[in-house]
Amino acid sequence: xxxxxxxxxxxxxxxxxxxxxxxxxxxxxxxxxxxxxxxxxxxxxxxxxxxxxxxxxxxxxxxxxxxxxxxxxxxxxxxxxxxxxxxxxxxxxxxxxxxxxxxxxxxxxxxxxxxxxxxxxxxxxxxxxxxxxxxxxxxxxxxxxxxxxxxxxxxxxxxxxxxxxxxxxxxxxxxxxxxxxxxxxxxxxxxxxxxxxxxxxxxxxxxxxxxxxxxxxxxxxxxxxxxxxxxxxxxxxxxxxxxxxxxxxxxxxxxxxxxxxxxxxxxxxxxxxxx
Length: 275
Prior knowledge:
Blueprint (H helix, E strand, L loop, with lengths): L8 H4 L5 H8 L8 H21 L4 H14 L10 H15 L6 H12 L8 H14 L10 H11 L3 H14 L4 H4 L2 H15 L3 H13 L5 H18 L7 H28 L1
Keywords: Activator, Cyclin, Membrane, Nucleus, Repressor, Transcription, Transcription regulation, Transmembrane, Transmembrane helix
Subcellular location: Nucleus
Pfam families: Cyclin_N
């Protein structure tokens, strides 16, 4: 593992662009709406956080798992895979990489409890089989740099109130529901969250001059900070529209379209053989 983000696989291989992500989503958007796509994504992220809470996992483990999940779907479609199997495998692998290994059965059982057997029809063998495929899709680059440590250090240096540190952690957790960790370096995410929290904290005016002076001394592109701030605000606006009521229907549509392709391919093979 490299302690330097700029020399890491995350910076060199896994820092993506919005255009790359949008290009890969085109396959799914032939069969479901963009709204349905994001509802399915948010649902999977919610499941990860629930599993993390019930299993008392460190937040970093879930952040790593969701980074794996996002990386996988930067190259693959929901339609061509089983997102809930992918998610469960991501959590299982993340517990190993973050040095909190759990028995595969414990992770699978908790996924069943949280998701329910109507949607989750996988077992330990499925997760074990998919584990290698998941790592291969990520080119075996499994170390993830997060913004938590940088965020906490900077906020303590600024001597902001404890309540604002908690608020900053909540925003950081929410960011893993989005593509932001694939698009921006961890230190930019941390600084942007401080920028946002500096406006939201109680008695914000009391800290305004201190935060302003601190930002002046930073070697960061403020246009990038403002741009990312807007992306985070946009996420919260989309979040107000979220509903998990139709997740089964969304998955059913994706599976039906995939099955239709498989049937068409089988018919084509059978026809070719007759010829």
